[in-house]
């Protein structure tokens, strides 16, 4: 695993955008795994700026989002459909037919729907580059603690902590969805490359457990230790509880010398 520690939120957005832009340029028909939340917003702003400057073309790319709240239509202001439209898709030239987000309005045969989402990822050739945030409880996507490390796209009940973290976006707790459709950890582990972004002291414990703790379903992100190409791009605050920061810097220096393509 590569652990890239940057000064602050702005720097992680810039660094992640540099890597994502490099990946899009080297494979224009790239399949991107996309995440919502406050963390990837900085990345999306940077990618939009590169696109506007004329140096980044998404016309042949495909996007698969990680998750969506169950019960929210695409038009709901708190839906992840709305988030992606507002903060990314309406500003770039990703073709509409290449945008995939789990449908929050599914109301029956959840397993069948989720199996079809998985199949559409496979049909597109699999995810080349998966972008992830991390929850305070170590979740990736909505894979809450104790999610099977082999899980696939499915309906998932949200944890108390996630409901508390997100309820301020809704006018009342009763409006806050209690379930979501999310790619599974097994789905995420099949992507060819993973970039996990984290910012702020509130994420420090989860980041330390994910990188330095044991692999456990209690911390979904720890499953990334089994992935051969993961880069954590985190700021100083999110890196606060890591015990081997000097070593990660050394690894990075050696990577820059011997295998710079891993950072491009
Ligand atoms: P955040 O969410 O980026 O808004 O902190 C991350 C997550 O819960 O995955």
Descriptive overview:
The mean pLDDT is 97. The chain is α/β, with parallel strands linked by helices. The two termini are 15 Å apart. The radius of gyration is 17 Å and the shape is globular. It has eight helices and ten strands. The protein has a seven-stranded parallel sheet. It has a three-stranded antiparallel sheet with strand order 4-8-7. Bound molecules: 2-phosphoglycolic acid. 2-phosphoglycolic acid is lined by residues 37-39, 133-135.
Which overall shape is indicated by the principal axes computed on the Cα atoms?
globular
Tally of contiguous helical segments = 8
The order of strands across the largest sheet is: 1-10-9-6-2-3-5
Average of the residue pLDDT scores = 97
The termini sit apart by 15 Å
Largest pleated sheet: 7 strands, parallel
**Poorly predicted spans:** none
Structural class: alpha/beta
Proportion of helical residues: 25-40%
* H/E element sequence: EHEHEEHEHEEHEHEHEH
Give me the count of strands. 10
What amount of the residues lies in strands? 15-25%
Radius of gyration, whole Å? 17 Å
The ligands bound in this entry are: 2-phosphoglycolic acid
């Amino acid at each position: 695993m590569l652990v890239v520690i940057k000064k602050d939120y702005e720097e992680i957005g810039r660094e992640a955008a540099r890597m994502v832009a490099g990946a899009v340029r080297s494979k224009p028909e790239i399949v991107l795994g996309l995440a919502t939340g406050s963390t990837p917003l900085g990345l999306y702003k940077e990618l939009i700026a590169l696109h506007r400057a004329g140096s980044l073309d998404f016309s042949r790319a495909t996007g698969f989002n990680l998750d969506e709240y169950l019960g929210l239509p695409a038009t709901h202001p708190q839906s992840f459909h709305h988030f992606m439209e507002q903060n990314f898709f309406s500003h770039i030239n990703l073709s509409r037919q290449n945008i995939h987000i789990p449908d929050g309005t599914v109301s029956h045969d959840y397993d069948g729907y989720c199996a079809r989402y998985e199949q559409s990822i496979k049909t597109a050739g699999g995810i080349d580059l998966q972008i992830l945030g991390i929850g305070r409880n170590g979740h990736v996507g909505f894979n809450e603690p104790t999610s099977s490390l082999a899980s696939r796209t499915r309906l998932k009940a949200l944890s108390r902590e996630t409901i508390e973290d997100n309820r301020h976006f809704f006018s009342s707790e009763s409006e806050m969805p209690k379930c979501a459709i999310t790619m599974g950890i097994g789905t995420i582990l099949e992507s060819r490359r993973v970039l996990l972004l984290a910012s702020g002291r509130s994420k420090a414990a989860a980041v330390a457990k994910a990188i330095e703790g044991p692999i456990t379903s209690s911390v979904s992100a720890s499953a990334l230790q089994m992935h051969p190409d993961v880069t954590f791009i985190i700021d100083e605050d999110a890196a606060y509880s890591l015990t081997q920061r000097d070593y990660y810097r050394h690894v990075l220096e050696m990577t820059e010398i011997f295998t710079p393509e891993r950072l491009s």
